[in-house]
Design brief:
Shape: globular
Order of helices and strands: EHEEEEEHEHEHEEEHHHHHHHHH
Number of strands: 11
CATH topology of the largest domain: Rossmann fold
Number of domains: 2
CATH superfamily of the largest domain: Class I glutamine amidotransferase (GATase) domain
Largest sheet: 7 strands, mixed
Number of helices: 13
CATH class of the largest domain: Alpha Beta
Helix content: 40-55%
Radius of gyration: 22 Å
CATH architecture of the largest domain: 3-Layer(aba) Sandwich
Distance between the termini: 44 Å
Strand order of the largest sheet: 5-2-1-6-7-11-10
Structural class: alpha/beta
């Protein structure tokens, strides 16, 4: 029997702990009923570091079934997000030494670790992601880039799986992560059956659709000033040289500093800001593509559609159907 341990930590969202456990147990039940998947059920255990109750994010006591074992080769440990009171995740790492040590031991013993949302930072702090590809929730990526420069951050990926380390972006990514683990530990066909039975829509392959300027609080000061100047200028997009002048920089210096701070060129960042305006308009009004183009300074419809698809992973029509006021 394959074992999956869910590690409940202080500050976790109780719904993600028990939701994941219930999803995997549902997979066992469905596998047994359809006959061909029930021979090797997944053993699910909800544990804490010492076997005692933990305090969930809402202050309630979350009871567990066991203390965390040392782990065995191929055993899977899932670490739900547990630092939910602040968008500055790195601050919340200061009192997590015991958790970090436990993750190091589990990995050293040959186990698999799957972390989602803020708990990915525990893997990073443990040094397990150094030199590897990983993802993080879009609003935490700047923090991860600053604090852990050795990690190759896959900024658009919602999930990465490499060398026994799985990262899932988003506070409520536990369902998509659960389906991925069912596929990995049982079969793809069983994961598909579970998704259909539970009516779970798999997450889009890109985080682009979820990015919004309103929640980008950890952006470097230069990026915030750049954004402010671009928004002030719209619907006429400013020349990069003019933005640089207003920032007291040369165009070349602006290019270098934005690349260092955000991994983006001034033009690509400006287009991201313009597409943020377009997405916001779709979410809050029924304007057509022509109005979106006018508001963001595009005269060529094909160029606008190309930029929108790049920024959101969808066409304007698809984005409206999913997030617009008419949905």
């Amino acid at each position: 029997m394959t074992r999956l341990t869910i590690l409940a930590l202080d500050g976790c969202l109780a719904s993600t702990v028990f939701g994941l456990a219930e999803l995997v147990r549902m997979a066992n039940q469905i596998g047994k009923q359809v006959g061909s998947y029930g021979d090797h059920p997944i053993e699910v255990v909800v544990a804490s570091l010492d076997g005692g109750a933990v305090q969930a994010e809402d202050g309630s006591a979350l009871m567990v079934e066991a203390s965390l074992s040392q782990g065995r080769t191929h055993d899977v440990l899932v670490v739900p997000g547990c630092m939910t009171h602040t968008l500055d995740v790195t601050v919340a790492l200061t009192d997590r030494k015991h958790e970090i040590d436990a993750l190091k031991r589990w990995y050293a013993n040959g186990g698999v670790i799957a972390a989602h949302c803020s708990s990915i930072f525990l893997l990073a702090e443990a040094g397990l992601l150094d030199g590897r590809k990983a993802t993080a929730t879009w609003w935490a990526q700047a923090q991860m880039k600053d604090a852990y420069p050795k990690i190759e951050i896959m900024s658009d990926d919602t999930l990465t799986d490499s060398e026994r380390l799985i990262c899932a972006a988003g506070p409520f990514s536990h369902l998509d992560l659960g389906l991925h683990l069912i596929e990995k530990m049982a079969s793809r066909s069983l994961a598909s059956l579970v998704a259909k039975f539970a009516m779970i829509e798999r997450s889009p392959p890109s985080q682009a659709a979820f990015r919004t300027m309103e929640l980008t609080r950890h952006a470097p000061p230069l990026a915030k000033r750049f954004e402010s100047l671009v928004l002030k200028s719209l619907p006429v997009p400013p020349a990069i040289s003019e933005v640089a002048r207003q920032l007291g920089l040369t165009t070349r210096t602006l290019q270098r500093r934005l690349l260092e701070a955000m991994g983006k060129t001034p033009q690509s960042y400006m287009n991201e800001i313009r597409m943020g305006v377009a997405k916001s308009l779709i979410e809050t009004s029924a304007v057509d593509v022509g109005h979106l183009m006018a508001a963001t300074g595009f005269s060529d419809e094909s160029a606008f559609r190309r930029q929108f698809k790049q920024a959101s992973g969808m066409t304007p029509k698809q984005y409206r159907e999913r997030y617009g006021v008419s949905r």
